[in-house]
Structures are given as C-alpha cells and as structure tokens.
Write the structure tokens for this entry.
Amino acid sequence: MTIIKNAEVLDPVYIPSELPFREREIQRLEELVVKPLRDGISTTLFIYGSPGVGKTTTSKFTLLNHTEFRSFYFNALSHPTTRSILADVMLKLRNSGVARPSTTEIFRQISNWQKQKGMNILLIIDEASNLLRNDLAGLQMLLRSSEAYNLTLSTVLISVDDPGTFLRGSRKISPLPISTLRFSRYSFSELYGIIMRRARDALYDGTYSPEILRMIAKVSSQYGSARLAIELLQKSSYIADYVSSGIIGSDDVRAANALINPYITESKLVQLSEEELIVLLATCRCLYRFTKTDIPCIVMNTEILMESRLRRSPTMSMIYRIVRKLEDLGMIESVIEGHGSRKGVSKSIMINDTPVRVLEKKVEEVLDRMS
Ligand SMILES: Nc1ncnc2c1ncn2[C@@H]1O[C@H](COP(=O)(O)OP(=O)(O)O)[C@@H](O)[C@H]1O
Ligand SMILES: [Mg+2]
C-alpha cells in the first residue's frame, strides 16, 4: 500500500468521530428525541432525505449508546413487519422467547421489562419506506403503544421519502404529534470538507491534492451525497494504489466514477458527426493531466487533429456550438468561472465520468469506422 494508510476509514460502515455540517440536525435530534425520552416523554420523529446525506450515520451517532435509556437500531429491509421488529426487541430484552407470541403478549413482555428496569426505550427504524407503505397498521399500533400499553417508548423512522406521501389520505397514524426532520443534500463545499477529513485520516500525506478532492466533490455534488463522495475517494485510492503511481490522478477519479456509474458512451458516440468527434477527441487530449480545461486548448487541439486528417478546422463559433451539444448529451460538463471582478469569466470544461484515455480510444474507433 503506497496510498492508503487506514482502509477502514474509507469503508461505508465506518462511523466518523465528528459529523461536520450536521450540527443543526444533531441538536434537533437531542431536542426532539433524547431530552423528552430522558424526561419520560414518548415521541415520534420522522427523518427523511436523499440517499447518502447522513441520515443513518447522524442518527446512530446521536441516539445509540445512551446509558439513560435503552436504544435499538433496526433496518426494516430485513424486517418486513413492525411485529417482527417488536418480537426482536422482546427477545433482546427478555432473553427468552414465547413461541408465536401475540402482539399483545409482545407489548406485555416489553412493558414488564420496563417496569422492572425503569428504563425508557428508543427504537430507530431505518429504511422504513416499505414498512410505511405495506404495514401502516402495524406502525400505528407501535406509535400508539405508549398510550395503549402504558409504555415509555419513542420511535425514529428514517426513509428517503417525504412522510407526507404516506400520511396524506391515511388517518392520523399516531395520537401523539409526529415531528419531522429533513436532511438536505450536501453542497459542493460541504462535500469537500467531508472528504478532506476522510482523506486526511485514510491516506498518506502527499498522495492527494486539493484539486483531486475538488473533482470528487464536484462529481458527487450532483447528488449531494456524502456516500458517493466517500466511495469515489475509496475507489480512486485503490485504483491509484493498484497502478503504484503514488498519487491519485484525475483519471483515477474518472475510472472510479466509471466503476460506480457505468453508462454506455458508445451509443452516444455513433450519433456524432466527424467534426463533433474531433472536438471531443481534442477535449480528451486537453484533459490527460488536468481535471479541467478551456476552449483555447480545445481549439488548438482541434486544429492539430484536423490538419493531420487534411481537413479544414471548424470556426471558433462552431467549436463553441459543438461543445454546447456535447454538454447537452452529457458527454462533457462545464462551469463558468470568474477571474476576479475585472478579468471577466471563462468556461472550464471537464469530463468526470469516464477515463479520458478510454473515451479517446472509443472516439478513435468510431472515427476509423467513418473513414
Ligand atoms: N457530515 C458527515 N461527515 C462525515 N461523514 C459523513 C457525513 N454525512 C455522511 N457521512 C458519510 O457518508 C456516508 C453515507 O451516510 P449515511 O448516513 O449512510 O447516509 P443516508 O443514511 O442518508 O443514506 C457514510 O459513510 C457516512 O459516514
Ligand atoms: Mg441510510
């Protein structure tokens, strides 16, 4: 290993020691769940937001391992019904099972445990979308248990869907008010902050540049996902380690992205004209060693390529138009960047999801077939 110092830190299940950019959510969890339960008040909280925005990690980080109440974490993907979750809770609390207990029996057992120990209970049910869709009755029963069985039991439900989509139309699912907490997507700079910390803890000094971290943050900011950002960092580190280059390069990130996001470029390439293919090829050449390039580099390389094919180079405005088309097709990406107030703006062009050397080869094959 020449790049990775601590592989565990890049693992998807690793729980970091700090969760930057989730201070507000942590505080809300404290206010809406931890404090009330400490005071013997049962609550229900709904957490939702896109994949990879830290819902699971933040909940575990804030809600598990409290000594003043007993907390359980369940992933509903492996528990098809609320009842199976409750049966599991009962087993864990009582260490003894009643064969095929009725729901009432389950609640009675949990309630007995609570009376003996005087401890409040918290259930975190993650990936709860299907449970909400298919077992609303079971969930209702759980959320009413504090009233019906005199339990002090709080529930946190986590899903990617807005709870409104389940609760609309259905009768009120709980006698208690339900709070909601939405986790928003991470911005570019937040993603940069998150992977910068991961890189620092996982990789050797000097094996990654701020530029590479910016590239990863840029790609993952399309989805606002920290999971994608960390996975890109992990895969590009392994790829760079494998080829023993000693440092993560921009093509390693593109290769990592291609692994994660495989998508067919070939079908798009065959729809392009010769001139368009040449401009794309020129763009690849400009990006061998850089994460982004600009129009002047593309113009220069287009001229060179056209000359070698004994063809006239397209005009500047045609090249602009082709670049825009390639962008619309999703083959390249661009950002407009400022250079300070008096220096104007320019267009930076990137290819982030395919290694440019792979793309270049494909473009050349398609061009060969044309001539
Ligand atoms: N604020 C953060 N700081 C550091 N790592 C984070 C942060 N938010 C998310 N992560 C990491 O991103 C990945 C995805 O987070 P996760 O909680 O599984 O997202 P979700 O449950 O919303 O899909 C995990 O590896 C997690 O450690
Ligand atoms: Mg999750």
